[in-house]
Amino acid sequence: MTRLEKISSYISDNEKVLDVGCDQALLSKILAKRKIYSIASDLRPNIIENAKKNLTPLEKEYITFSVSNGVPAILNEEYTLVLSGMGAHTILDILKNSNYRFNKIITISNNNNDILRTEMSKLNYYVLEEEIIKEKGKFYNLIVFDNVKRDYSKEQILVGINHKNKELLKEKNEYLIKKYTSILNIANNEKLIDIVNTLKDYKY
Fold this sequence. Notes:
Elements: H1 3-9, E1 17-20, H2 26-33, E2 38-42, H3 45-51, H4 57-62, E3 63-67, E4 80-84, H5 88-96, E5 104-109, H6 113-122, E6 126-135, E7 138-146, H7 154-159, H8 166-184, H9 190-201
Parallel strand pairs: 1-2, 1-4, 2-3, 4-5
Antiparallel strand pairs: 5-7, 6-7
C-alpha cells in the first residue's frame, strides 16, 4: 500500500478533505473513486493546471482545485486536513499561519516528528494514532491529530503514540539505533545517547 493509499485508509466516507501541497492531486483522485469530496491545493499554479488535465467525470464532480500558499480562504465547513510530503517545520508554519480550526489532521513526515508532536500540542492538536510506512527503503511516520487533549511522556514524544504497525516501528527504531550508534562511535553526543537508550528500552 502506497503512502497515499495509506492516508486514504484513515479517511472515512463522510469526511471532506483538504490536501495542502497536493502535487498531482493523486490523493484526491483516490478519494473521488470513493465519492469523497476534496480540495486539492498547491502554491504552484502549473502543478494545479497539470493536475486538472484528463480528469474523469467522477473526479471533476468530487475535486475542487485551489492555488494557495497554505490553507486556502475558501473553507466554509468542516474539513480533514492532509499535510504530506513536507517537513515538520513546513507543516507547523502552515498551521500557524491559518485561522481555520481543524477537527482532524493527517500528517506524513520522515523527520523531526518529535518536534511535530511537541509543537502541535502547543497549537492544541494532539496525537490520536500513528503508523510507520516504508516506501522505497525510506521510513515515513503517518500521524493522525485531533483536538482531544493528551499528555505525552518523554518516550511518546520521541517514538510516538498508538502505533498501528509495531513490526515496522521496531524495524525503524532498530535502523535509528544502528545509525546513531555509528555516529556515537566517532563522537559522543548526550542527546543522541539519550535517544538511543530510549529506543533500546521501548516496549513493543
